[in-house]
């Protein structure tokens, strides 16, 4: 029997039944500060019953109440918000069927990685890159907009003794541990990638007339101004790429910055130009061949409306009911202050299914208790390694209701009888795996099975930007990164609720950050690791000194490729003055 951590994390650790990390590659017998605290955390801050407006009710009463609300609303007035709090196929994907059957509004799942997936696919047909075994073959690695030594510890373990180059907007922990680092301006990575390509051509490291014509449109002066690097530094990067033929780890932060899709797409084609096989890694989930749409019922049903994850706050008036699972939108989505206001005013009936009292669960009208991954059966995949895992519970929890059971009991309550809503879950998974080398009975008996990913053979330099396609980065920016002790908003039960500290080059003490749409109050802290014009926060504590979501000051937006909102925003001012 095995357990697999299903949190939104590259590593997807696998444990034995006594919760020791398996000594198989690439888990290699170690885990993170969250992994070692999971057993302890499992009994803290848990939702232990259903609640209606703060009052304990039975799960059955909760389901009846939800069914009544659903009957009173039009499908497009019901929005479900679900993300990667647990990426089990039976926790995240399959339970979406009921909402898609009803035709409810859906988000576009764009908050994190969709921009990069779409950009890389537009060049390669697929976004899959290097697998853990491939990581081992390289003698060098480039960490481009990636804080891998914190966000991706098992990948880092494989690469940490190689020659390492980091490209970041601040002196990150990964930069400090690298042999070379380059600090660029936020959102300038597309320019830098083109600068590197220009040198690769000038120095005749590569011959490619089509590329030569495309990069001509960009002059070196503009690239230097945009990136803030010296010409010699860009040349050095081209030399390093040519001589080391490194693996490039393309971080998710890039997709949430300006020019994000172009940056990621252009970075991903550098290895190809240099003939480096499987020379990049972004996220491998979409190359595994799992039919996620089938699990969600999207092969048959269609949401009546799809909205950007960055738009939920702004378009809140279009909805009457929001059903949330696997996500903590009050913490994580742009404009989430508008969700809070709408719930407080009674304009939105907010329903949350979560194992823990997340910030969103705390303000919800109706709450359902979910089991953690330690307490339920699931099929788990990783966005890095290619194991499929049959996760079995090691702790019993009779108070909680699984996502599958909640969906099916709600369907009964609504007198829905479409067979897809009641398809035996493992049968559904088996069908979703039909294009892979894995079948469910094999997986259920062997517990861990390697899936053989599918690579595509197509390649195109397009979509290659022209200068007018790119936004020239100037001004001051707020940026975020992963904290070692938290996964997004999770783990405050163990590691505490931190104050909102904004690391920067100039200011110390209490003050405010203002964007074009609002202001939040924070604690500034000077750090020599941060260049002028950069305001850095960990992405695990997104509430200001007055408990306002920091994301209140992020306006709605949609990336050009996969719809990812710009979270690393340009700000208007940062100052010690509060008013
Ligand atoms: N411990 C821990 N691990 C995690 C998570 C966590 O919360 N905690 N979260 C998981 C999730 S959800 C994700 S998405 C990943 C995220 O992990 P990563 O992919 O590593 O991305 P980020 O941590 O968002 O940012 C990485 C780096 O990008 C830099 N950066 C910001 N903007 C720019 C830019 O415009 N250009 C360049 N070159 N650099 C820039 C930041 O300074 C930061 O050092 O980690 C996963 N792993
Ligand atoms: N300003 C700013 N905003 C950001 C970011 C940033 O860098 N800056 N980062 C963005 C990124 S990268 C991401 S990925 C998003 C993440 O945003 P969220 O999706 O909100 O991620 P989490 O905070 O991990 O919340 C996941 C929720 O799922 C719950 N959960 C865990 N396991 C289960 C389960 O088995 N069942 C159910 N029903 N629920 C479960 C957890 O308890 C938690 O409440 O935030 C984004 N928001
Ligand atoms: S959060 Fe990541 S590194 Fe930590 S236990 Fe889970 S999968 Fe492993
Ligand atoms: Mo993420």
Characterize the structure shown.
- The protein is of the alpha/beta class and 579 residues long.
- It folds into three domains: 273 residues, Rossmann fold, CATH 3.40.50; 172 residues, Dimethylsulfoxide Reductase, domain 2 (3-Layer(aba) Sandwich); 102 residues, Barwin-like endoglucanases (Beta Barrel).
- The chain contains 22 helices and 25 strands.
- Helix 10 crosses helix 13 and helix 10 packs parallel to helix 14.
- It is globular.
- The N and C termini lie far apart (58 Å).
- The mean pLDDT is 97.
- It binds ligand MGD (2 copies), iron/sulfur cluster and molybdenum atom.
- The site of molybdenum atom (MO) has 3 residues, from loops.
- Iron/sulfur cluster (SF4) binds next to loops.
Gyration radius over CA? 23 Å
Taken as a percent bin, the fraction of beta residues is 15-25%
Classified by CATH, the class of the largest domain is Alpha Beta
Low-confidence regions: none
CATH topology of the largest domain: Rossmann fold
Question: How are the strands ordered across the major sheet?
Answer: 4-3-15-14-13-5-6-12
| Proportion of helical residues | 25-40%
Q: What is the straight-line distance between the termini?
A: 58 Å
Shape: globular
Structural class by SSE content: alpha/beta
The number of E-state strands comes to 25
Number of helices: 22
| Average pLDDT rating | 97
Biggest β-sheet strands, sense, barrel = 8 strands, mixed
- Count of folded domains: 3
| Small molecules in complex | ligand MGD, iron/sulfur cluster, molybdenum atom
